[in-house]
Each structure stands twice: as structure tokens, then as C-alpha cells.
Amino acid sequence: GAGVSQTPSNKVTEKGKYVELRCDPISGHTALYWYRQSLGQGPEFLIYFQGTGAADDSGLPNDRFFAVRPEGSVSTLKIQRTERGDSAVYLCASSSGSYNEQFFGPGTRLTVL
Amino acid sequence: AQSVTQLGSHVSVSEGALVLLRCNYSSSVPPYLFWYVQYPNQGLQLLLKYTSAATLVKGINGFEAEFKKSETSFHLTKPSAHMSDAAEYFCAVREKNNDMRFGAGTRLTVKP
Question: Please, what sign has the CA dihedral across residues A102, A92, B34, B110?
Fold first, then answer.
């Protein structure tokens, strides 16, 4: 596609539920990144994939958060037992190589009631 | 770990006036520094980046930034603000392991 796309654009869920957020990177980009942006803050790094493997998952806040990229393209961020504090905009970015420019998607706004 | 600090969460300028958005970084090694812009309901867009090739970096939309090692600063400027420049601006530093560390952002308002 022309750019990074993320679905859904908005997700409202109840505390304790499970959610999945999807990221479609730019075709051919090998590196994929997830960030979380809370209200009034800058994006916070969560996890980085190079191909199918997670090269760095040090930003995941706890074991309720997990991400996969099974075929080295689309990635899914999974959040179990959601909490109100998980409410944020989740951003995805991709790049053509590990140290090249990151292109960002529009984000998924997650609201946990 | 490296970090960035953006001074001023809100900056307001008149159309045609100078834009100055401040960013200071902390790093024990030569940093890779970036400025991104975020328009409402859109993704982050790269304005410019410093990768040690030149201390004055020119970006898109007439913006530029100067890397000053002695001041550990990477301030963003534009000589003349346009209404279309109103947005949120983020300074970021890239870590050795490639993830980005962002500042808290500065919201720029342009008054007619």
C-alpha cells in the first residue's frame, strides 16, 4: 500500500477484555515498530521487529502485552485483561531497514472503560 | 539511556513570525536526532534528521534545525510561520538498539 495502515482506527472495550490491534506496514519494509502515545505525551517505544522476530521487546510494559509478526509483514499487538490505564493511541511504524526512516501509521485509539 | 526534553508544551506565534521550538538531549555518544510533526488525526511525519553529516539540517516545509553539541540542543526553527504549521511537534533521539525516544511534544498555535 501507499503507507502504513492500522485497524481499527478506534476501539472501545471494557476493563478485563482482550483486544487485538493490527498494523499493515509499507510493502517490502522489513522493520516494524509499535509505540504507545498517552494523552499529552510523546510516543513511547513498545517493541521492534526485524522480519518475523522481535529484535527488542524491552518497551512492553508487562506480560499482558504481546505482539506477533508471523510472516514478516502484518503485525498484531495483543493486550490481555485490559485496564483503564491502557487507554492510549497505539502507533505503528515501518522502515526499509533497521536504521532507515520510520514511517508512521495514523494509529489506533484504544479506550478502556 | 538517551533522552530528549522539549521546553514548552505550548508555543503560540503570529502568522509570519519566527518559530522556535526547543529540544535538548542527553547522550553519552554522538546522537541521531529527529523532529517529527503530527497533524490532528494523522500519523507522525518526519520533518528532518541529524546524522552527524552537517550541524545545520534543512527539512520540509521550510523548517530547519541546528545541532549544537556544546549546548546539547537541537532546536527547530522556521523564519515565517504559516497557519498550516499549527500542529504538534516532537523531538526524538534514536537509541543504539534502534528504537526512538520521543520528547513530550510542543503544540504550536499560529494566530492570524
Answer: positive
pLDDT in tens, B80-107: 999 999 999 999 998 766 778 899 999 9
Mean per-residue pLDDT over chain A, rounded: 93
* 8 Å CB contact of B100 and A35: yes
Chain A residues contacting B via beta carbons under 8 Å: 3-4, 31, 33, 35, 40-45, 48, 55-56, 58-59, 91, 93, 98-99, 101-107
CB half-sphere exposure, B51, CA atoms < 13 A = 6
* Contact at CB, B44 and A56, closer than 8 angstroms: no
- What pLDDT was estimated at residue A55? 87
Angstrom distances, CA of residue A61 to CA of A26, A85, B100: 26, 11, 16
**What residue has cell string 549546548?**
B71
> 3-state class of B71 per DSSP?
helix
Identify all chain A residues contacting B97, using CB atoms and an 8 Å cutoff: 48, 55-56, 58
CB B38 within 8 A of CB B92: no
> Tens of pLDDT along B11-53?
999 999 999 999 999 876 778 899 999 998 788 999 999 987 7
pLDDT at A63: 95
Q: Which residues of B touch A101 (CB under 8 A)?
A: 46, 49
pLDDT of res. B1: 66
Distance to chain A for B60, nearest Cα, Å: 14
